[in-house]
Amino acid sequence: MPELPRGARLGVDVGKARIGLAASDPDGLIASPVETVSRVLKVPTTAEGGQAVTADVARIAHEAAERFAAVVYVGLPRHLSGHEGAATADARGFAARLAREVAPVPVHLVDERMTTVTAHAHLRAAGKKTAKHRPVIDQAAAVIILQHALDVERTTADRAGEHVDA
């Protein structure tokens, strides 16, 4: 099996108010939390009629550049049935804007069903009180998204998820 290029991978959990960010080591072995980024909901347009780069996208793009990221994985929230809804469309739009900003670094969408529930369970198991989950839950979900993608990479020797065109 051919090996994937070396480089950190980023995991992104897009929420309504906050975005969780996680990163891996350059060998793609372990996902770790990085930070929680405030979400920008209104995307301004440029003078040419395109979409301006928002602070949240710019922050993640900066992190990708700083870490020499090989790929960015964005969680794709689907219903348990597998169907897509409003949150899915929002994540797809965010991923497309991010892909334009980080190109030529590839962006992939990966299924994130149940990641927030799993993140809450992990935090409870670690002894964190539920009231203290809010500041870190998005990062914990991003870690789960990224670790799943890393596991898929190791199993298949290919990138996980659906490629997003820049």
TrEMBL record:
<feature type="domain" description="YqgF/RNase H-like">
    <location>
        <begin position="7"/>
        <end position="119"/>
    </location>
</feature>
<protein>
    <recommendedName>
        <fullName>Putative pre-16S rRNA nuclease</fullName>
        <ecNumber>3.1.-.-</ecNumber>
    </recommendedName>
</protein>
<keyword id="KW-0378">Hydrolase</keyword>
<dbReference type="Pfam" id="PF03652">
    <property type="entry name" value="RuvX"/>
</dbReference>
<dbReference type="InterPro" id="IPR037027">
    <property type="entry name" value="YqgF/RNaseH-like_dom_sf"/>
</dbReference>
<comment type="similarity">
    <text>Belongs to the YqgF HJR family.</text>
</comment>
<dbReference type="InterPro" id="IPR012337">
    <property type="entry name" value="RNaseH-like_sf"/>
</dbReference>
<keyword id="KW-0690">Ribosome biogenesis</keyword>
<comment type="function">
    <text>Could be a nuclease involved in processing of the 5'-end of pre-16S rRNA.</text>
</comment>
<keyword id="KW-0963">Cytoplasm</keyword>
<dbReference type="InterPro" id="IPR006641">
    <property type="entry name" value="YqgF/RNaseH-like_dom"/>
</dbReference>
<dbReference type="InterPro" id="IPR005227">
    <property type="entry name" value="YqgF"/>
</dbReference>
<keyword id="KW-0540">Nuclease</keyword>
